[in-house]
Every structure is written in structure tokens, then in C-alpha cells.
Amino acid sequence: MALTKLDQLYRQVILDEAYHPRHHGKLSAPDRSVTLRNPSCGDVLTLQLQVAADRVTDAKFSGSGCTISQASGSLMTDLIIGRQLSEIPELVGIFSDLVINGSDPREDQLGDAAILKGVHQFPARVKCATLAWKAAAQAVEGATDD
Amino acid sequence: MQMREEFPFFAAHPELIYLDSAATSQKPQAVLTALTAYYRDSNANVHRGLYTLAYNTTERYEAIRAQVAAFMHAPEAANIVFTRGTTDGLNLVAQSFGPQVVGPGSEILVSGAEHHSNFIPWQQLAKRTGATFRVAPVTPSGDLDESALLRSITPQTKLVAVAAVTNVAGTRVDVAKIAQAVHAVGGYLVVDGAQEVPHLPVDVSATDADFYAWSGHKVFGPTGIGVLYGKSTLLSAMPPVQFGGEMIDEVQDAESTWAPVPLKFEAGTPNIAGIYGLGAALTWLGQQDRGAMAAHEAELVTALRTGLSEIPGITLYGSAASVAIVSFNLAGVHPHDLATFLDEQHIAVRAGHHCAQPLMARLGVPATVRASFGPYNTAADVTALTTAVATAGRFFHGTH
């Protein structure tokens, strides 16, 4: 069976990330909270941020979703903790370009999250990968659903 | 199976194992031929032109309406309104008929296993009119609970909307029995027939449903064409919801009057090519042994349920009686991940909420995987799916 593409999408490190996600859960006192749905599949993801002096001091995500969306939420939250809010939109843009195109000259800025680039071979799954990042972009804009 | 040869789609996709006929069926050559022939030989607008070609096309258009009426055992052709599909037909009933019969103090009842298109129109009708919207329970397996639905009918029930066959668990209900119970309290029954018409004979006169909507594209016909059956007295008393050409009797500056049913509900140029294709699909279906087709699909359901049940971590929804649909989940593997895995093995299934979020909420899952059959599927398709699902379990649980 031709599992090469699948093996790239579901690398062990991605499966581990999804089955044991970091920063999964809810914050006790979030400053910002965004809930996004993937209406075609029913996945739902809530991202909460704690912000001090325009810097993300903590982040957690919760909800239900596939391996790709859960791994992506884990990697995204890990990346943005400690960052200035103003840095986040560019990271979101780089990630989005990477999972659509499969490579990006700026992908090093994403750290471990760049391992999700294999998603580009599965166009139907791009929205699974980007859900958490869209939530991050909205959280920066100040949206809160609390 | 020899039937596959009548479907050019399978020759174009020799590797593909298509298990998504509940979303849309494939089309026999006869339907493709009818679509091309319409545009080549018969293209003229209907109910307008006086020239011979337009007259002939109108005659054929109306002949197909009569064919559809006979197919459903409707009393006459005027019971048949051509729509864009099931959703369009159900919304027409909700918008036009709904406000005539429901209001504050009355109840609209649906099941918890309905497709969104037979759920939201009634939910919104209740909001607009002040009626109470009630949702009957489902069984733990996701089946429509017919006895619970019957028990939920009260003297205040004015409308019941239910799928003849549900789109996630494939539950078949006894439409005649429900119609009788609804009529006993002075209410009306609207049936979503989208998943019944492809697989089972429909007799609206015998079941006494007041309205029955279905889609051509799930019954081997083209997309964008559907049928709404309605009882004559009800259709006649309903106001049109769209205005324009074809649907009028007389138009003056201050007032207009409407054409008789069914043209009253067919404003604008209809999907004539789609109707020609639908006619060809029903002719094709009439040439098949429908009993054998249904028996074949039931065998596939049994084989798939048996095969899947041997895989560790499988949850099956529905029952052995499910009509041409098997929905399931594999423990620890999200339905999307499973569907992507299957797609890589050239197996096309549906994964998601199947436009039935209220049912997903009742089952406590975000989504399921759904395999659904047409008469062209084979035992080999079932074996391929069960083998791939077992492999997926090992792949995602790290033992590959």
C-alpha cells in the first residue's frame, strides 16, 4: 500500500503531538478567548490567551478535532507563548502559506510547527491545520467570546 | 457486477471504490445521453414559445411530470412540483404551507435524526410563527425512534417532518403509520424522501403523506433537479413563494393572479435539461429489478457490518436493517483522519456530521464515518473497506 504521503502527513511526531497535546485545556482567567468552528466537519476549537504588556504570557486550546487540528493547536500555542501580540499575524501568515504550498522561505520562524507542511499534499485538510491559527489571528485582533 | 458497465464514471475511475451514494449517486449512460440530447435536439424554453420545437419540449416536460407522478403513485401530474432538490421542496412547504397551519399554541415535531434540511426550516418556522418546536428522541445507536416519535404526537401537533430513511443511520420508518397518527390529531406529515427513493418503492397514495420531497441526483439523475409531491387540496391553497415568469395567470399594475398548481410554484425558466435527465433516470430505474437491487444493497450492509464488527474499537451506528448506509467510528481515530487514510487507498467515504449536528450531539460524537451503497457496489468494495479500516487502526495506533 502506498502510504508514503500518509506517512509524511502522520509522522510519529505529529501523532504524538496530537495524542499528548501541550497547552490543552482552559485558562482560569483568560484575557482573550476565541471559539472557531469548522462548519463542514463540526470540529470546534477554543483558544484562550493570557496577555500582559501586549505579550502572550500563557495560552491554552480546547475542543474536539482530528489529529491535524489537535497537533496544530499544540504546536501553535507552544510557538506563541512568550511572543508579542504584534508578531502573531505574520506567524499565522507564514503557517498558512506553508501548509498550502509545502515550503516557505520563512518557515524556520515556525520552529517545530513547520512539521505540518505535509498537509499541503492533502488540500482537503488545510482547514484542519489552520483552524487554531485563525483563532490566534482573531485573538490578536481582540475578539473574545466570553 | 454487470451494472457497473452502464455507469461511465466507473470506467473513468477504475481504481476508485465509491461508497458515498447517500451523498450523490453515479449516473447511468442513459442519463448522460438524455442531457446531451436535450441540448442538441430539444433546447427551447417551456410554457412560452408557440413554435413546434418549444411545443414539443413543453409536451415532453409535462410528460416527465406525469412519469414522476406514476413513479410515486401520485393521483395526478398536478401533484408534482419540480424543485431544485429535497432542500428546496422542504423549504417551499415550510415557507408557504407552514404559516397556514401553525402558530402560537401549536407544535411542530421532527425527529432528532433529521438532516439539517428537514430540521432548520421547521425550527425557523416555529420561531417566525410562535409555534413550539419539538424534537423526538433517537435510540442510542442513532436510529430514528419511531415509537418515541409517535408518542411525541399531541393534540397540538400540526406538522410532523420526518425522513422516510435517515441519512446517518439509514433508519427506515413506517410512513403510513406516522401519517395515520398525525392525521388522527388533525396534523400534516411532511416526508424527506431523499434516502428512500433511491432504494425503495414509494407510494404516496398508500402511505397518505401530505408532502414528500426528494432529489434527482441521489436517484441516478442530474444535480439541481428535485421533486415535491403535495396533496392537491393543500397545494391549491398554498401561496407561491417566488414570483416571475411561468407562474402567473394575469398580471396588472395593481394585482396579479397565479397559474394553477404546479406551475404556480415554478417561477422562472426551470431546469429543463435536469428534468429530461430525471425522466431518463426513472426510465432506467424502471428497467431494473428493484427488488434485486434492494436485496443486493441489504447484503452489502450485512457484509460490511459483519466485517467492521470484527475490528477492535469499532462502534457501529444504525442496525442490521439500515437501508444502504453504514455509519461507524474507530476508537482513537478521528473520522477525518480515517477518511484521509481511506482516500489514499482510493476509497471514497463521507466523514463528518452529515448535515445532522443535532444527531451528532445526541450520539455525543463530533462526527462519524459513513459508507453508503448504490446498486453498482460489490462485495469486493466491502472487503476493501474493511481491510483498509483494520489497517488504519494499526496505523494510527502506532503499530504499523
From TrEMBL, chain A:
GO terms, biological process: iron-sulfur cluster assembly
Classification via SUPFAM superfamilies: SufE/NifU (SSF82649)
Similarity comment: family membership: Belongs to the NifU family.
Name of the protein this chain belongs to: Fe-S cluster formation protein, NifU-like
One function term, GO molecular function aspect: iron-sulfur cluster binding
InterPro entries, alphabetized: NIF_FeS_clus_asmbl_NifU_N
Domain of life: Bacteria
CDD domains listed in its UniProt record: IscU_like
Domain NIF system FeS cluster assembly NifU N-terminal: residue ranges: 10-128
The organism of origin for this protein: Lacticaseibacillus nasuensis JCM 17158
Gene3D superfamilies: 3.90.1010.10
UniProtKB/TrEMBL annotation, chain B:
One matching Pfam family: Aminotran_5
Domain Aminotransferase class V: 17-385
A biological process from GO: cysteine metabolic process
Catalytic reactions of this protein: (sulfur carrier)-H + L-cysteine = (sulfur carrier)-SH + L-alanine
Keywords annotated in UniProt: Pyridoxal phosphate, Transferase
Broad class of enzyme this protein falls into: transferase
Keyword Metal-binding: no
Cofactor: pyridoxal 5'-phosphate
EC code(s) of this entry: 2.8.1.7
Source organism superkingdom: Bacteria
Recorded GO MF terms: cysteine desulfurase activity; pyridoxal phosphate binding
Family statement: Belongs to the class-V pyridoxal-phosphate-dependent aminotransferase family. Csd subfamily.
Protein name: cysteine desulfurase
